Amino acid sequence: MFNSLSDRLTSTFKNLRGKGRLSEADVDATIREIRRALLDADVALPVVRTFTGNVRERALSSEVSAALNPGQQVVKIVNDELVSILGGQTRRLQFAKRPPTVIMLAGLQGAGKTTLAGKLAHWLKSEGHRPMLVAADLQRPNAVNQLQIVGERAGAYTYAPEPGNGVGDPVKVATDAIGVAKSKLHDVVIVDTAGRLGIDEVLMQQAADIRAAVNPDEVLFVIDAMIGQDAVQTAEAFLEGVDFTGVVLSKLDGDSRGGAALSVAQVTGKPIMFASTGEGMKDFEQFHPDRMADRILDMGDILTLIEQAEKTFDQEQTQKLAKKVQAGEDFDLNDFLTQMAAVKKMGSLKKMIGMMPGMSQYKEQLEAFDEREIDRVEAIVKSMTPQERTNPKILNGSRRARIAKGSGTTVTQVNQLMERFAAAQKMMRQMGKGGGMPGMGGQPGGAPGMGGMPGMGGLPGAPGGRGPSRKKKGKKGKAAGKSGNPAKRAEQEKLAQLKREGKEPTPTGSAFGNLGLDKDEDIDLSKLPKGFGGIFGKD
């Protein structure tokens, strides 16, 4: 959502690089560009004035003039002010001392309250709570049925005594739900209320009546992050009518300008507590103002990435792999398959890569990246026998052809995967020796190219990425008559060696060239052509 704003701010800060001193004219030009970028992003005008005024005042002060790198100091000031208008500190849910904790959702119709109720229940369940959903939206057609379906997907019980569609008293439903939650030992109650197409007195009065009846611990105002300038007016009206305690941004993964996120907290004085970042149940996260500011300024969000990894990766398996690497054992394809499964559980690979610092410059490459590449890689590995996964060195030409056919890919794709896997093995060996991660220069985490990750052959056009496949130029001094097929060329070399030793081999007639592996013997890598051993993890 913040791609356009992020690009504009990053471009503005580039003009400050390399300057040992910033004049007042430099600061004014920077503030002018920041103001335009914020207004284009639909940030409310009062918020823009306050923001740019604070940045200008600090940028002209001694903290910039005395800095060794004035440009970086201005970026830090902008980051600090972004954190401030986004709410300052992370605001967490306040749970009741005596359960159940009652959370009421309010907002306009179409803001995504019902779906968000299920996401919140799923998130609370992952935090160790037992949430219960309450269908108090009895006016919108099929709202009750939708909440029941969402609750089932979230694994939460839904209290829906009334059929809805205009039938029933929402205040009574919300009141009765508290007793039901106590009897069923649910420690959190999430009340989904009705919305309207616009702000009206009937909506506000009904929401106020429900609040008065259940006395909720938290009232969360759900606002569509894509509504732009109207967000301020809507938020102020709900603040006056319902007096909410926190804000939840829905549809934060949209392609709109995102001004609502930068306006609502500053205008209402209420913190943004959660953000919905996709359509899936897991696309829901606690809102951290400092991390969101880092994302906007293209500094990445490594902390969120680490938290997601900690929740997804099995600690026992991770420790087992770490001990294996430290003991000097090779990282095999079984280990790789386990790690790939964990990466898939974390969600969209594009989102994960996008959380790394400096990735805005690879935005086009990220959009072009095919998420199904992970599935193809998984299919290739699963098409191998257990012996082949444990010992990839035995993968000769015929085996690779069989694997390609079984996985619906090509031999070239299988070869590329094995080349990357060999690089990953080399990286793991070096890590086991305490040498760090090779090839991780540039961006933190080695994001561009993802060269160390088998199957992730790099983002096309990014440093370290493979990009479109190109035909390799022939090496100088290549002997005439040698085959271009690696397996067949290896067979030719072996035949030549045997002839030099006076041993005449028996022809086998294999279409791919027999490497003498009928008895599962290892390949003699010393007899392969120079450079071919890299496929098998040897230099």
TrEMBL record:
<feature type="compositionally biased region" description="Basic and acidic residues">
    <location>
        <begin position="488"/>
        <end position="504"/>
    </location>
</feature>
<dbReference type="Pfam" id="PF02978">
    <property type="entry name" value="SRP_SPB"/>
</dbReference>
<keyword id="KW-0694">RNA-binding</keyword>
<dbReference type="InterPro" id="IPR013822">
    <property type="entry name" value="Signal_recog_particl_SRP54_hlx"/>
</dbReference>
<comment type="subunit">
    <text>Part of the signal recognition particle protein translocation system, which is composed of SRP and FtsY.</text>
</comment>
<dbReference type="InterPro" id="IPR027417">
    <property type="entry name" value="P-loop_NTPase"/>
</dbReference>
<dbReference type="InterPro" id="IPR036891">
    <property type="entry name" value="Signal_recog_part_SRP54_M_sf"/>
</dbReference>
<keyword id="KW-0547">Nucleotide-binding</keyword>
<feature type="binding site">
    <location>
        <begin position="250"/>
        <end position="253"/>
    </location>
    <ligand>
        <name>GTP</name>
    </ligand>
</feature>
<keyword id="KW-0378">Hydrolase</keyword>
<dbReference type="InterPro" id="IPR003593">
    <property type="entry name" value="AAA+_ATPase"/>
</dbReference>
<keyword id="KW-0687">Ribonucleoprotein</keyword>
<dbReference type="Pfam" id="PF02881">
    <property type="entry name" value="SRP54_N"/>
</dbReference>
<keyword id="KW-0342">GTP-binding</keyword>
<dbReference type="InterPro" id="IPR022941">
    <property type="entry name" value="SRP54"/>
</dbReference>
<feature type="binding site">
    <location>
        <begin position="192"/>
        <end position="196"/>
    </location>
    <ligand>
        <name>GTP</name>
    </ligand>
</feature>
<feature type="compositionally biased region" description="Basic residues">
    <location>
        <begin position="468"/>
        <end position="479"/>
    </location>
</feature>
<feature type="binding site">
    <location>
        <begin position="107"/>
        <end position="114"/>
    </location>
    <ligand>
        <name>GTP</name>
    </ligand>
</feature>
<protein>
    <recommendedName>
        <fullName>Signal recognition particle protein</fullName>
        <ecNumber>3.6.5.4</ecNumber>
    </recommendedName>
</protein>
<dbReference type="InterPro" id="IPR004125">
    <property type="entry name" value="Signal_recog_particle_SRP54_M"/>
</dbReference>
<comment type="similarity">
    <text>Belongs to the GTP-binding SRP family. SRP54 subfamily.</text>
</comment>
<comment type="function">
    <text>Involved in targeting and insertion of nascent membrane proteins into the cytoplasmic membrane. Binds to the hydrophobic signal sequence of the ribosome-nascent chain (RNC) as it emerges from the ribosomes. The SRP-RNC complex is then targeted to the cytoplasmic membrane where it interacts with the SRP receptor FtsY.</text>
</comment>
<feature type="domain" description="SRP54-type proteins GTP-binding">
    <location>
        <begin position="271"/>
        <end position="284"/>
    </location>
</feature>
<feature type="compositionally biased region" description="Gly residues">
    <location>
        <begin position="434"/>
        <end position="467"/>
    </location>
</feature>
<dbReference type="Pfam" id="PF00448">
    <property type="entry name" value="SRP54"/>
</dbReference>
<feature type="region of interest" description="Disordered">
    <location>
        <begin position="434"/>
        <end position="539"/>
    </location>
</feature>
<dbReference type="InterPro" id="IPR004780">
    <property type="entry name" value="SRP"/>
</dbReference>
<keyword id="KW-0733">Signal recognition particle</keyword>
<dbReference type="InterPro" id="IPR000897">
    <property type="entry name" value="SRP54_GTPase_dom"/>
</dbReference>
<keyword id="KW-0963">Cytoplasm</keyword>
<dbReference type="InterPro" id="IPR042101">
    <property type="entry name" value="SRP54_N_sf"/>
</dbReference>
